[in-house]
Amino acid sequence: MVEILRLPVLRDNYVFLLVDSAGGRAAVVDPAVAEPVAAVLQQQDLELAVVLQTHHHHDHIGGTAELLARWPQVEVWAAASDRARIPLQTRGLAGGDRLVLWGRSVEVLAIPGHTRDHIAYYLPAAGADGPELFCGDTLFAGGCGRIFEGTAAQMLASLELLAALPAATRVWCAHEYTEANLRFAITQEPENQELLERLKRVVKQRADGEATIPSTIGIEHATNPFLRCRQPALQAVTGATEAADVLAEIRRRKDVF
Ligand SMILES: [Zn+2]
């Protein structure tokens, strides 16, 4: 059984630890910084075994070198096509690859848009453990990442790939942006009751100092405008009919919101 820990770091990043308590080991997703990760590993007497990288941005790979200095045997999983920008990788991956992490299967999904070589890690349900998704900066709770290196059509295809995962899939995205995302979303879809209720819930959670991550694919379907580009309400508000054009226009509006 793999337990997931969420560590808030920097201003609004989350680093996730996958802990195999029985084996005394852990994997870390996108260690922006090393120290808080090392502290938890030490506290819980865990060996670091794997670093999983979703993309090359510094607030995702920044702590990897220091963790490797301390645990030299660590495997670093990352997109093989981005070796120049994620140079510490020991296992180059591509969309469609399947790995096994302590009995849990891990599927690699290519999800370009935020960056050219962005990948996600999907763990299908296994026994009593539900499906889990680590999607970096592509799908956020209530939003999506900025389109730095891809096109709106690529981002749409990537988001639709994630949206096709089971509704119960927990979404572990890398930033606590949910409240700002939903405050924007409601301006685009003011009649969406589920969105309105989610916004209220999230405002309360944040006021109480609680994290809003993980979300689920089911919640995102109902309330995230970037997963709703084929909905008539969003076509109407953007004046576009093609889903990629709807996404491009909502993304443009969010960029200046
Ligand atoms: Zn990023």
Model description:
The chain is α/β, with parallel strands linked by helices and 257 residues long. The chain has one domain: Metallo-beta-lactamase, Chain A (4-Layer Sandwich). It has nine helices and 14 strands. 43% of the residues are buried. The mean pLDDT is 97. Bound molecules: zinc ion. Zinc ion is lined by residues 55, 57, 114, 137. Zinc ion binds next to loops.
Characteristic key phrases:
257 residues; alpha/beta; Metallo-beta-lactamase, Chain A; 6-stranded mixed sheet; binds zinc ion
List the helices and strands and how they pair.
Blueprint: E1 3-9, E2 13-20, E3 25-29, H1 35-43, E4 47-52, H2 58-61, H3 64-70, E5 75-79, E6 91-93, E7 98-101, E8 104-110, E9 119-123, E10 132-134, E11 139-140, E12 143-144, H4 152-163, E13 170-172, H5 178-188, H6 193-207, E14 215-216, H7 217-223, H8 232-238, H9 243-255
Parallel strand pairs: 3-4, 4-5, 5-6, 10-13
Antiparallel strand pairs: 1-2, 2-3, 7-8, 8-9, 9-10, 11-12, 13-14
Helix pairs in contact: 4-9, 5-6
Bound molecules: zinc ion (ZN).
Zinc ion (ZN) is lined by residues 55, 57, 114, 137.
Overview in brief:
This protein has about 260 residues and is of the alpha/beta class.
